[in-house]
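TA notes, week 10

Several of you asked for a full example with nothing omitted. So below is the full record: structure tokens for the whole chain, then the designed sequence directly under it. When grading your own attempts, check the secondary structure regions first.
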């Protein structure tokens, strides 16, 4: 099962993950995107600056957004209730624009662990977690997370006891999930900002756990 532990084997000289050159022939959809974008600029519907601003806003999305939401839920019981009741409204309350999608927060507890997948493609709460990791989009993860989720979790280093209920949630184009991981022990004196540093991307997908303090 591929995951980020292997990404370090494919780094360029700059230290960034290696990617093949994308100078091949454009796909049909890439050609359509360029044509529509140029047409909208020509018609005055959009400006290049507006397009770039939106691209920059998308690039700024990262797991730090989701970590801030989780940390607040850990320190604010009333916010936690609102998050579990309506994830979309709770995210907007913190200033995160998640668009029209329905966000569902699922809580890990002493007897329940949650795992997120998108069996159809790669639906993912990008507004809170940034771009999905490569392994999340693979056919292997999308199928095995449903067929043998405990085996998948073991490969990520999460070995659940047999008495822990494991729930797998399938994201869709209209509904995305985020895991509210259990707060680590020994963090009672930590601030929300400090707690956010413990929240990992994988812990909000369910394939990992928060860092220890």
């Amino acid at each position: 099962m591929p995951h980020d532990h292997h990404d370090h084997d494919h780094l360029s000289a700059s230290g960034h993950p290696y990617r093949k050159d994308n100078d091949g022939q454009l796909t049909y959809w890439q050609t359509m995107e360029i044509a529509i974008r140029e047409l909208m600029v020509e018609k005055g519907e959009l400006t290049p600056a507006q397009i770039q601003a939106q691209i920059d806003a998308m690039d700024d999305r990262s797991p730090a957004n989701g970590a801030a939401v989780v940390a607040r839920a850990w320190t604010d019981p009333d916010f936690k209730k609102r998050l579990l009741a309506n994830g979309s409204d709770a995210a907007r309350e913190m200033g995160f624009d998640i668009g029209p999608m329905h966000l569902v927060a699922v809580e890990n507890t002493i007897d329940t662990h949650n795992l997120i997948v998108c069996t159809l493609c790669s639906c993912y709460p990008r507004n809170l977690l940034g771009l999905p990791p490569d392994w999340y989009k693979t056919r292997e993860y999308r199928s095995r997370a449903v067929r043998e989720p405990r085996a998948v979790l073991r490969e990520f280093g999460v070995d659940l006891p047999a008495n822990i209920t494991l729930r797998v949630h399938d994201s869709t184009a209209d509904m995305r999930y985020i895991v509210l991981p259990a707060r680590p022990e020994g963090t009672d004196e930590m601030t929300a900002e400090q707690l956010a540093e413990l929240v990992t991307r994988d812990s909000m997908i369910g394939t990992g756990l928060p860092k220890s303090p």
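Strands lie at 102-107, 112-117, 165-170, 175-180. Use that as a sanity check on your answer.
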